[in-house]
C-alpha cells in the first residue's frame, strides 16, 4: 500500500513539474521599480533569455532601433519630471527604445507612443528625448534581460552587455 502511495505521489509531482514548465513563457513580463528623489520610476518589459545565442550585434543588431526587450515595446514611466543624462524628461509614460552600439556609447530613446508592438511602427518624430549613454561589457553573464532602477541611475543588462543612464530630479 505504501508503495502505491509513493508511486502516485511521484507521478503527481512529475506532472505538476511538467505543467509548471509548460506554462513558463519564453519572454516573461517583468517590472523594475525604484525612486529617484520624489519620482517613482517603473520600467515594464518582456525578459527574453540568451539560450546560447549571440545577442549584441547578431540577434540585436548594432546601430538599429531595438525595442529594448521582447514582445511589446518596453515602457518607462516617471511620476515626476526627471533628468536623464542631464536632459529633462517630463513626467509620463514612454515607449523605451535603444540603439545599441559597439563603440562604448549607445542611445536611449523615450518615445511618446508607449503602446506599440516591438519597434515595427517606431517613429522618430514621436521621440521626446534621446540621450547617449555609456555601454559595454558586463563582468557577469545575465541569462535573462534585466533592468535595475537605482536612486541615481537605471541600467539594462543582458548576456555580457550593459548600459547605464544617470537620473536625477
Structure description:
Keywords: Signal. This is DUF2911 domain-containing protein. Residues 1-22 form the signal peptide. This protein has 169 residues and is mainly beta. It has one domain (26-168). The protein has one helix and nine strands. The chain has one helix spanning 2-23, and strands at residues 29-36, 39-46, 74-78, 82-84, 87-89, 92-99, 105-111, 127-150, 153-168. The protein has a nine-stranded antiparallel sheet, with no helix packed on it. A hairpin with a 2-residue loop joins β8 (127-150) and β9. The longest helix is centred in the N-terminal third of the chain and has 22 residues, at 2-23. The radius of gyration is 20 Å and the shape is globular. Residues 6-23 have low confidence and may be disordered.
Any low-confidence stretches, pLDDT <50, length ≥5?
6-23
What would the average pLDDT be, to the nearest integer?
89
Spatial sequence of strands, sheet with the most strands: 1-2-3-6-7-8-9-4-5
What's the alpha carbon Rg, rounded to whole Å? 20 Å
Written as H for each helix and E for each strand, in order along the chain, the element string is: HEEEEEEEEE
The beta-strand count equals 9
Oligomer: single chain
Overall shape: globular
Main structural class: mainly beta
Signal peptide: 1-22
Protein name: DUF2911 domain-containing protein
Pfam family, one: DUF2911
Keywords: Signal
Amino acid at each position: 500500500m505504501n508503495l502505491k502511495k509513493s508511486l502516485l505521489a511521484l507521478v503527481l509531482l512529475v506532472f505538476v513539474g511538467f505543467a509548471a514548465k509548460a506554462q513558463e513563457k519564453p519572454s516573461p513580463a517583468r517590472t523594475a521599480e525604484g525612486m529617484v528623489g520624489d519620482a517613482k520610476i517603473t520600467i515594464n518589459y518582456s525578459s527574453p533569455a540568451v539560450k546560447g545565442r549571440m545577442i549584441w550585434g547578431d540577434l540585436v543588431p548594432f546601430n538599429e532601433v531595438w525595442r529594448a526587450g521582447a514582445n511589446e515595446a518596453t515602457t518607462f514611466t516617471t511620476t515626476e519630471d526627471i533628468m536623464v543624462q542631464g536632459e529633462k524628461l517630463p513626467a509620463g509614460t514612454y515607449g523605451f527604445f535603444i540603439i545599441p552600439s559597439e563603440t562604448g556609447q549607445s542611445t536611449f530613446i523615450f518615445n511618446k507612443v508607449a503602446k506599440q508592438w516591438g519597434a515595427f511602427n517606431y517613429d522618430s518624430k514621436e521621440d521626446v528625448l534621446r540621450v547617449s549613454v555609456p555601454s559595454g561589457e558586463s563582468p557577469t553573464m545575465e541569462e535573462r534581460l534585466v533592468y535595475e532602477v537605482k536612486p541615481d541611475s537605471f541600467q539594462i543588462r543582458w548576456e555580457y552587455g550593459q548600459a547605464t543612464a544617470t537620473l536625477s530630479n
